[in-house]
Amino acid sequence: AQTVTQSQPEMSVQEAETVTLSCTYDTSESNYYLFWYKQPPSRQMILVIRQEAYKQQNATENRFSVNFQKAAKSFSLKISDSQLGDTAMYFCAFMKPITQGGSEKLVFGKGTKLTVNP
Amino acid sequence: DGGITQSPKYLFRKEGQNVTLSCEQNLNHDAMYWYRQDPGQGLRLIYYSQIVNDFQKGDIAEGYSVSREKKESFPLTVTSAQKNPTAFYLCASTSYTGGNEAFFGQGTRLTVV
């Protein structure tokens, strides 16, 4: 069974600085998706960034980027120029690709609570 | 607008009662999921379904039941057998097209009184 581990329960960063959130996972699959989701105080889950395992290039979305190390099974999220609105819980997630008629679990880590300080 | 709707936002249940949480999506997604969120526990999978009339147990299915009679709907029943039902419940959906991104509802906060 796949597992996802986030080793940092809480982190804080000063506004405008850079912070990196860690995520490791365990799988024997060669193809899969990795995600980072953000959950602000409203509790609405928002997709931050997605990485496909067969793509070697690290995904980026504006101020958010990942460091995907497939051999090490590591998937860290870097937030540059942190903003107050980045304050949230961040969850790392893993999923094998769904095929038509198939069924796969979406597995989450326990989350990292990030606080951006003014 | 396409999306997932969970209702109600807040729900109160007396001990010993069953209660049903609603989840509806108009995204034409195949897969739907129910998660339970407790402080420090992350999101734990209760049930998931890929097609109508078929569903699988997740990691914490005991005390819960689901149905999938329509592609758009995946209601969750919290039964009296669930010993600690007070939690935040999230419904999600995804599809085999579009990179498997999951979309979430706004959640239901269930409190046992």
- What is the global morphology of chain B? globular
| Helix content class of chain A | under 10%
Strand tally of chain B is 11
**Total of DSSP H or I helical runs spanning 4+ residues of chain B:** 0
The share of residues in extended strands of chain B comes to over 45%
- In terms of DSSP E residues, the strand content of chain A is over 45%
Biggest interface, CB < 8 A:
A-B, 29 and 30 residues
Termini gap of chain A: 41 Å
Helical content of chain B, roughly?
A: under 10%
Structural class determined from secondary elements of chain B: mainly beta
Tell me the overall shape of chain A.
Answer: globular
Concise synopsis of the structure shown:
The complex is a heterodimer of chains A (118) and B (113). Chain A has no helices and 12 strands.
Secondary-structure map:
The complex is a heterodimer of chains A (118) and B (113).
Chain A: E1 3-5, E2 10-14, E3 19-21, E4 24-26, E5 33-39, E6 46-52, E7 60-61, E8 64-69, E9 74-79, E10 88-95, E11 106-108, E12 112-117
Parallel strand pairs in A: 2-12
Antiparallel strand pairs in A: 1-4, 3-9, 5-6, 5-10, 7-8, 8-9, 10-11, 10-12
Chain B: E1 4-7, E2 10-13, E3 19-25, E4 31-38, E5 42-49, E6 56-57, E7 64-66, E8 76-78, E9 87-94, E10 103-104, E11 108-112
Parallel strand pairs in B: 2-11
Antiparallel strand pairs in B: 1-3, 3-8, 4-5, 4-9, 5-6, 7-8, 9-10, 9-11
Structural overview:
The complex is a heterodimer of chains A (118) and B (113). Chain A has no helices and twelve strands. Chain A has 118 residues and is mostly beta strands. In chain A, a hairpin with a 6-residue loop joins strand 5 (33-39) and strand 6 (46-52). Chain A starts with a strand and ends with a strand. Chain B is mainly β. Chain B is 0% helix and 48% strand. The N and C termini of chain B lie far apart (35 Å). The A-B interface holds A 6, 9, 33, 35, 42-45, 47, 50, 52, 91, 93, 95, 97-111 and B 30-31, 33, 35, 40-45, 48-51, 54, 56, 58, 88, 90, 92, 94-96, 99-102, 104, 106-107.
